[in-house]
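[step 3/7] fold_predict: job queued, chain A
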Amino acid sequence: MADLGIDKEKLAAVLLDNWDELHVLQLKYVAAQLREAELNNMFETTYNSVLSEHEFYACKQTLCERYNVRLGERITSYSNIVLLSDADHEDLLDIAKKKQFHFGYINEDGTYKDECNGSLIRITAENELIVFFISLLPESLQDTLKPAIKNYTKKIKIIELIMEIKGKEA
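[step 4/7] structure written:
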């Protein structure tokens, strides 16, 4: 973390002094990651269900070669929907949205329900972890890190650093 101007040992000491709150936020972050993966799987399963019930065919020649799929081949996997025509893609989305609404994943207007928006859940947990982290730092480091967290790579490094901290009993 030297590239962020943070002494890892001093940081660990400060975070350990606030272990109870830190540990709750660490657990919340891990739970958010798991929930995001679960939700992504639920949505992918919905799309695969639609693809098994309706016939859609690959029609983008250049992409077919990259995906090792023959032009005109039936698409049966969510991972290959990029090969659909724009019209078929829209049809797939419309059918999937009806299923997702029926299962309670999305609102009637097609937006994700907050509890089914995996990215929102994860980002909220990330932000809570980072805000807590920054609040424990001296002001000079806070001023340094606030711009850094807008950089995705640095934000992930900060989260990884925080997640490496283990309690005294660990």
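[step 5/7] annotate
The chain has seven helices and no strands.
Helices lie at 8-17, 19-53, 61-67, 86-103, 118-135, 139-148, 152-164.
exit 0
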